Amino acid sequence: MSSIDDITKAAELVAQARAELSGVIRDADLALAAVRTKWGERLRTAAATAAECEADLLKLAKGNQALFVRPQSIEHQGVRVGWRKGKGRLELPDLKLMMKRMAKLLTKPQRAAVIKVEVKVLKGPLARLSGEILQKLGVNTVGAGPEPFVSFPKSDIEKLVDWWLKPIAVSASEEE
Fold first, then answer.
1. Pairing mode, if any, of strands 79-82 and 73-76?
2. What angle do the packed helices 4-63 and 156-175 form, to 10 degrees?
3. How many CB atoms lie within 10 A of CB 161?
4. What tens digit of pLDDT does each residue of 14-58 get?
5. Which helix (H) or strand (E) is 5 found in, with range?
6. Residue 27: which of 166, 153, 168, 157 has the closest Cα?
């Protein structure tokens, strides 16, 4: 059996390792901030210019549909422009009204193909029911006993540390 000193030493090692990881993440975040500062304006300008040019081309194609009869589109320097059949969409009426109409008009297999009913048991509200009702429903209640844990205050950097450690924890559990 370990002593409390062994546990405090191990906790100190965890704190040091997480502090080191926090420092590395902070340095990486500062480096990324420098990249965003250096390239951000150029990226925004380039993206805005590309979007503006695309809008101008679309406007030209829209105003000149007669040019795209045969063929309906052209490709120039990797950019395809022209006219095509639109995708369209369905605009549904009131749900209750539509369900009534479906019940009258559609066969059972048709209804099964177009209607999805999902049933989901909500554990939170279920847990608030009395033990007697839960027992009649066949729900077993398992008491939560004491369990070991390690927790940390969650600063922004700590959240990044947890994010970096998550894939490591997943791969470690896969190896077991």
1. antiparallel
2. 100
3. 22
4. 999 989 998 999 999 899 889 888 988 898 888 889 988 999 999
5. helix 4-63
6. 157
